[in-house]
Design the sequence.
């Protein structure tokens, strides 16, 4: 891609000037603060009756685990869920935004949302930001046209697949899927396979860890199995428990109801235009 | 391993005219850096009933361009009252590619059949040039096919000859280009309609070093372990 260094009047749309400034600064050695990333293993597969999504629960901030039990499977619509990998703020924001747009669309049309609608909204949003919104998503759901599974990449490209993995642990999880996936899986087989794939990511990828979340979506029904598997329990917990002897001293206990400090007008006039 | 690299379709794409229509062919590998993100992607995308395109370059850019052109063509068809011609489709792609050349990185081959000109292939490479050609090749794997087509292409082929040529060419490119792989997909468009075909990798012909090694003396000699030498 050629970089055009010409001053043009702003025509509207997103201005990438600050992105250029950031690039220039990082070349000089001034690095921006590290983001909270979900290192992540996220997967999805299509089984007999619908779609199963799976995710690990570790959120990292550089080399530190910031959240040991975060939720990476985001709600989009009653029949559509989306797993997110990449910068945690970006995945949260983009899925929340598109989830509201879908709700408004449902009110407007009076119909159940379709997965391709969510797909188009997400891909247009991500393409508009040219990859700077670092969100890699696995979108799955069941609508009137059947079960669907899509992957969406930060630059806005999408793929439609029967099984998919994303995130830093995607290679480990894909190895499991490639060897064991077949068409016409039952629900139990599917859940077991997804657990195996996520566990493969949890144990072999440093950016993924803690627990396994699963979401099973079928026609007219969904099951959100939060912490379906806990393969990393805390092993050495003190059985005696902890006691902290020196407590903070209580000097005075006084309750002041706020009504005494503020004038509360009971009733009042009706609001006028 | 840079899993955040933009998705690109390493790719081999081909479009060939024959007597009565066109054959479009492509491989199915989408790569993110050195990882194959999708080993079974479909790079031949439908624009209208009679016009299809082969996409190469950045996956996001080519998908967006094809979505916009499909939308414009749909409007155009409604306004015109009859199916759009391949020339119009190709020029719409060209306008988007040329006017946004600084921001897009996509090479496209437009192929289809209409009642005025018959089967036509238009190549629209990176900068936004439009070239009407009897055959067009594109993508990273096409480098290996220029000489092949110079020798193997001829005018007035039949539908089956053209399809076999396309399959052979894509399979040769897959053998030599690391960024192309997976399966070979073809789409045949003529006055009767559209036919999609699929050739899995095991059905393709093996080339050169891919063949099984012949029995060599080395295999036979090492079977019996050598006696220690006696002085």
Sequence:
């Amino acid at each position: 891609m050629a970089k055009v260094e010409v001053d043009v009047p702003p025509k509207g749309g997103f201005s990438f000037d600050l992105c250029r400034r950031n690039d220039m600064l990082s070349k000089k050695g001034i690095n921006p603060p590290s983001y909270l990333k979900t290192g992540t293993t996220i997967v999805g597969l299509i089984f007999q009756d619908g779609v199963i999504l799976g995710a690990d629960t570790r959120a990292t901030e550089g080399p530190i685990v910031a959240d040991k039990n975060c939720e990476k499977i985001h709600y989009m619509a009653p029949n559509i869920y989306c797993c997110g990998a990449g910068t945690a703020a970006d995945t949260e924001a983009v899925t929340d935004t598109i989830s509201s747009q879908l709700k408004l669309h449902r009110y407007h049309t009076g119909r159940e949302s379709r997965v391709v609608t969510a797909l188009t909204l997400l891909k247009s949003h991500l393409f508009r930001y040219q990859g700077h919104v670092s969100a890699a998503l696995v979108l799955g759901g069941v609508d009137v046209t059947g079960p669907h599974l899509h992957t969406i990449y930060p630059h806005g490209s999408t793929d439609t697949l029967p099984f998919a993995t994303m995130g830093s642990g995607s290679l480990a999880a894909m190895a499991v899927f490639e060897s064991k996936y077949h068409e016409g899986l039952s629900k139990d087989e599917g859940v077991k396979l997804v657990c195996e794939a996520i566990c493969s990511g949890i144990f072999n990828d440093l950016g993924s860890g803690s627990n396994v979340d699963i979401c099973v979506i079928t026609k007219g029904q969904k099951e959100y199995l939060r912490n379906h598997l806990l393969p990393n329990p805390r092993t050495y917990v003190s059985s005696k428990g902890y006691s902290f002897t020196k407590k903070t001293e209580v000097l005075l206990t006084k309750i002041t109801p706020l009504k005494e400090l503020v004038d509360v007008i009971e009733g009042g006039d009706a609001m006028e235009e | 391993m840079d899993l955040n690299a933009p998705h690109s379709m390493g790719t081999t794409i081909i479009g060939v005219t024959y007597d009565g229509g066109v054959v479009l062919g492509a491989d199915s590998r989408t790569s993110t850096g050195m990882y194959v993100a999708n080993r079974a992607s479909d790079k031949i995308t439908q624009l209208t009933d009679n016009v299809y395109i082969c996409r190469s370059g950045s996956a996001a850019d080519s998908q967006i361009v094809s979505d916009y052109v499909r939308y414009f063509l749909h409007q155009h068809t409604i306004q015109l009252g009859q199916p759009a011609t391949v020339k119009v489709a190709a020029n719409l792609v060209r306008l988007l590619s040329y006017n946004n050349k600084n921001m897009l990185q996509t090479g496209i081959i437009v192929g289809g059949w209409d009642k005025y000109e018959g089967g036509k292939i238009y190549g629209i490479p990176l900068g936004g040039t439009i070239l009407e050609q009897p055959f067009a090749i594109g993508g990273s794997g096409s480098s290996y096919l220029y000489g092949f087509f110079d020798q193997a292409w001829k005018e007035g082929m039949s539908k089956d000859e053209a399809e076999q040529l396309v399959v052979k060419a894509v399979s040769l490119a897959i053998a030599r280009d690391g960024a192309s792989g997976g399966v070979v997909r073809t789409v045949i468009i003529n006055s009767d309609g559209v036919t999609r075909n699929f050739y899995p990798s095991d059905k393709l012909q093996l080339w050169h070093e891919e063949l099984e090694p012949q029995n060599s003396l080395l295999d036979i000699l090492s079977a019996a372990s050598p006696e220690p030498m006696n002085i």
Chain B has five helices and 13 strands.
